[in-house]
Write a structure and sequence with these properties.
The chain is of the alpha+beta class. About 20% of the residues lie in helices and about 25% in strands.
């Protein structure tokens, strides 16, 4: 078994074994050295079970960049586990995500390709919103005001 990216409709690639749809043109992300942006995570897939979400950026798998993923070989008799170095967009932080890859595809490959095409048809353009730290939207004054309201008041005796 190999984790192979195959071109799919438009500027997308499908990794059927992980159930992930990537942006094909994301290979030149500044600071992410060959990482791939996740466009969609297919329901019930190993990627979904591992907690990978759209807009996450997978930088490497088992310490290898995506360029060499095509050369990874796994058992066809028992589950394998890979570790994906991921930039989790929702947390604005890097994380190592363990993904259990079953020896057989989690669904028939034709069904996986059909679902990926359906997902792309429903959302054909990538999300271009900039990545932001979760607290970056707070102004310092607003944050201080919020903290003051949440802090218990001290009583003088």
């Amino acid at each position: 078994m190999r984790l192979i990216l195959q071109p799919i409709a438009g500027d997308f690639e499908l990794c059927a074994r992980l159930g992930l749809v990537f942006l094909a043109s994301s290979t030149h992300l500044q600071g992410f050295d060959g990482g791939k942006i996740v466009h969609a995570v297919l329901d019930g897939s190993p990627g979904a079970r591992a907690g990978i979400e759209p807009r996450d950026i997978i930088v490497s798998v088992d310490g290898r960049p995506w360029d060499s993923v095509r050369h990874m070989v796994f058992s066809d008799r028992r589950s394998s586990e890979i570790t994906a170095q991921t930039f989790a967009a929702r947390y604005f932080a890097f994380a190592k995500v363990a993904v259990r890859v079953p020896p057989e595809p989690y669904r028939p490959l034709d069904d996986i390709a059909t679902e990926a095409a359906r997902v792309i048809a429903a959302k054909p353009t990538p999300d271009t919103a900039p990545y932001r730290r979760p607290l970056a939207d707070f102004e310092i004054a607003e944050f201080r005001e919020l903290m003051a309201r949440l802090s218990p008041r001290r009583r003088r005796r």
